[in-house]
Amino acid sequence: MSTQTILPAPRVVEVIDTAPDTPWAQRVRLRPEPRQPIGAQQVRIGMLAMTVLPADLLQMQQRYGVQPSVPYVPGHEGVALVLEAGAEVGDLQVGQRVMPLGAGGLWADERVVHRRSLLPLPAEGDALQQAMLAANPATAWVLLKHMGWAPGQWVLHNAANSAVGQCVRQLAGHLGIPLINIVRRSQAIPEGAQGHWLVDDGLDADALRQQVVRITGAQPVMLALDALGGTATQSLAACLSDAGRVIVYGLLSGQASQIGAHDLVFRGVEVRGFWLARWFGDAANRQAGREVYPALLELARQDVLHMEVEQVYDLGDVAQALAHAALPHRRGKVLLRGIHGLAPASSGTT
Ligand SMILES: NC(=O)c1ccc[n+]([C@@H]2O[C@H](COP(=O)([O-])OP(=O)(O)OC[C@H]3O[C@@H](n4cnc5c(N)ncnc54)[C@H](OP(=O)(O)O)[C@@H]3O)[C@@H](O)[C@H]2O)c1
Are 179 and 157 in contact (CB under 8 A)? Predict the structure, then answer.
């Protein structure tokens, strides 16, 4: 008997309301989705685990770079099993673990996607870690490898306890990049953490600059990675050496980035935005882009990369998962699991 005949009808999450003030529970609904036949180059995948990303929450509030019209199935990242492969798909076996890339609409028990949007994964890896690999580790990789860092230079980053921040720390350690980690509260510094940590509550930019100078001495600080926007952009800019660069890659503060004209005009500081989807879409990055996921898979295999998990929810509890993911001061990521997924909902690390 095939897997499909013994499982209940697959479910999908739909976003039905993206108005700014709608409570999380009213933004989404769950509905059954009957299985359809698949095309010759398509693959039916069973979702094991899906991450709830800030990007998903932004999109549900009409604040993201791509806005589907409602109703739409959300979900940018996850890990799946091959359930059924089309007649012209010769290289994937049923049961093969895969990462859907660029497919979207992943908050579902099952999806039908084109073969070319699937990256085969090793079967032995931790499925939750694999589910979190597409967005944040890739972002950290590109920020550190392709935004102009050069040997001998320091890098600053804020929200250092975020998932991107965890990856930046792990990759910087692996690549030998000297790094200063900035968080907004001292409790966010992991117990026994190595490296340089600063707490910045956003109130005293000059104090932050002085602490950075104390750590780096006279060495250049040319790159700062900003997950926040708002006043944090200016605080980072003020800590940079002349001609340094702030890369704004997140909008967690919800505020427009501030930047002082003095730093721009007299010190030649540059502020640039970064979006992973745009970077991958740029033809100039084609070769570098092909190298990202093989490198990350190898680093995950070596345990260089490891992201914290806060809680895993069943797809049916998506409203609670959203409310949880929107809370501050989490220890790690909130994930969803489908009917093909993992052991029962759990807290803590995997
Ligand atoms: N541009 C891209 O292509 C790209 C790709 C991936 C991610 N991102 C962005 O990167 C950012 C981080 O994503 P993630 O998944 O790593 O986040 P995450 O794991 O959910 O962590 C969120 C972090 O942000 C901190 N934070 C939230 N609001 C803050 C504020 N107002 N001031 C200071 N710190 C604040 C939290 O600190 P506490 O623990 O103290 O609450 C936590 O460390 C998001 O903005 C996301 O959209 C961008």
Answer: yes
Our answer on whether the CB atom of 311 is closer than 6 Å to any ligand 1 atom is no
Asked if 304 and 171 count as a contact pair (C-beta separation under 8 A), the reply is yes
**Closest alpha carbon to 269 in 314, 197, 221, 317:** 221
**Distance between CA 102 and CA 164 in Å, rounded?**
19
**Tens of pLDDT along 263-277?**
999 999 999 999 999
Rounded to the nearest angstrom, the distance between the alpha carbon of 248 and the centre of ligand 1 is: 12
User: Could you give all domains of the chain from N- to C-terminal order, each with its CATH number?
Assistant: 3-132+307-337 (3.90.180.10), 136-278 (3.40.50.720)
- Cβ of 334 below 6 Å from ligand 1: no
The helix/strand/coil state of 324 is helix
Q: Give the atom of ligand 1 at the shortest distance from the alpha carbon of 328.
A: 41
User: How far is Cα 306 from Cα 229, in angstroms, rounded to an integer?
Assistant: 26
Q: How far is 317 from 319, CA to CA, in rounded Å? A: 6
Q: What is the pLDDT of residue 124?
A: 85
pTM value is 0.95
Distance (Å, whole) CA 153 – CA 255: 29
Closest C-alpha among 197, 76, 81 to residue 139: 76
CA of 250 to the centre of ligand 1 (A): 7
